[in-house]
Amino acid sequence: QGKFTLLRDTRTDGSFLVHHFLSFYLRAGCKVCFVALLQSFSHYNIVAQKLGVSLTAAKERGQLVFLEGLKSCLDLLFGEEEEQSGQPSPLQFISESASNLKALFDFVRTSLTPAGSDSWKGPVLLVDDLSVLLSLGATPVAVLDFIHYCRVTVCSQLKGNIVVLVHSNEDSEDEENELVVNSLCHHSDLILWVEGLVTGFCKDVHGQIKIIRRVSLELTAEQDLIQIYQYKIQDKNVTFFARGLSAAVL
């Protein structure tokens, strides 16, 4: 509880980790607020069904609060957004001159603050993916402020967890995105860094994952624990193995 997990991908797609955490927390009985900025609800639902979880059922029983970013953006841009219960759209900053993510934070806080009848085990905020907010016009400072306030509310006050996906490319000229990624790395309790193979495409090894446990955050003067594995994505699961020990190689 109270942990901030950063999912970072470079030269590959790390969204399989988002699907894992989404189904994992729903099966565990946690209240999940999913800020989905990259894909539609039906996309996440189809993948979740393969993993044995129904997002539609989770929404109906109040366990999953889903923000469909693609639809909200279009509705805002074309003026079709209807205010729900008098509240502004969570992505209101798109149509305003000020880059202010307060409406999005209020949406997260309202979604995860437990009501009297709630019996969920703990709140979870899942964001896929944070880099999209920059593309929509939010400033790096606004994005980092949003994450900071979410950490205070979800991790510290509500004793829940946050999982955030960001895309990064060390060769990129997108300085704002790299600033956000590097800042988040310094604050994360756990970093799962998915990278494409330097050697290029391979049908038996899809990439490597670097697991960084931030022991140094606990001020124990210890080095961060780093483990590196390679992986292969299959239809319903992912196989991990030590570097160079793929079944195809052996």
TrEMBL record:
Gene3D superfamilies linked: P-loop containing nucleotide triphosphate hydrolases
Record's keyword annotation contains Cell membrane: no
Keywords, sorted A to Z: Cytoplasm, Nucleus, tRNA processing
Subcellular localization: Cytoplasm; Nucleus
Any one Gene Ontology BP term: tRNA wobble uridine modification
Broad class of the protein's primary localization: cytoplasm
Pathway assignment: tRNA modification; 5-methoxycarbonylmethyl-2-thiouridine-tRNA biosynthesis
GO CC terms: cytoplasm; elongator holoenzyme complex; nucleus
Family per similarity comment: Belongs to the ELP6 family.
Protein name: Elongator complex protein 6
Lineage of the species this protein comes from: Eukaryota, Metazoa, Chordata, Craniata, Vertebrata
The gene coding this protein: Elp6
